[in-house]
Amino acid sequence: MARKNRSVKKTGSGLKFWGRHAVEAALANPHRFVKKLSGTREAIATLDVPEDLAVVYCDVADLGRVIPREAPHQGMVLDVDPLPEIWLGDLLDKVAEKGRPILVLDQVTDPHNVGAILRSAAAFDAAAIVTQDRHAPPESGTVAKSASGALEIIPWVRVVNLARALDEIAEAGYWRIGMDGDAEETLGSLMGQSKLALVMGAEGEGLRQNVASHCDVLARLPMAPQMESLNVSNAAAIALYAEYTRDRES
Known about the structure:
four-stranded mixed β-sheet; 33% helix
C-alpha cells in the first residue's frame, strides 16, 4: 500500500517517564531508546535494569524536582527518547488482514484521556490509535503514566490530515463508525461483520463536520436518559469492549 498520509516526525530533546508501569514497559520495549534511570535504591532494586543503562541513585525529593509537582513517580524516573514515527500506510499493511479495530481520535487533547484510551486499546486488543498531529497531545510522561504501560504496546499514528487518513483507512477495508451522541442508530446495530475504525471526537465538541462526513455511518452509545454523555475515554472503552466481544461471539 502506498504511503498516502504521512505521520509527523516527532521532535524534542527527550522525555521523562515516571511510575512503575510506565517505566517497566519502556524498559521492556525494544523500540524505545532509554538514556538514564533515576530513582531510590529500593525502587530500582525491583526493576530488571539493562546492564548498559546509566543509573543514578537519588532520594524522593530529588525526583520531585525533575518531574511535574506531585506526580506519582513511585521512586523512579526514566529518561527516554520519543518512539520512532509510524506511517499510516505501513501500519495498515501490517494489521488490515488481522481485523483488529483502529481507534481514530478527533481533537482529543487531554493527555490523561489519551493515556486512558491507550490503556483501553491495549486491554481490548485494538490495532492502533490515529490522531491529527495539531490536535492531540505529544508523547509525554503524563500520557505514559495514564496509559499504565500501553504507550509501549499500542501503535500511535500521527497524521497531518484526519479526513485523508480516514479515506486511506477505508481503502484498507475498514467500516468507519463515527461516534455521535445525537445519532439515531446505536453502535451495536451498525457494527456488522466488517473491520471497524471507531472515530471519536472531543468531549463537548464532538466530531468536526469534515471528519464526520468521512465516516460511513454515525452511531451512539445507548445510555440512560439522566446522563447526556460520557467522558471520551470511558466511551472509547465501552466501544472497544463491544467490538472485542462481538469479534469473539461471531
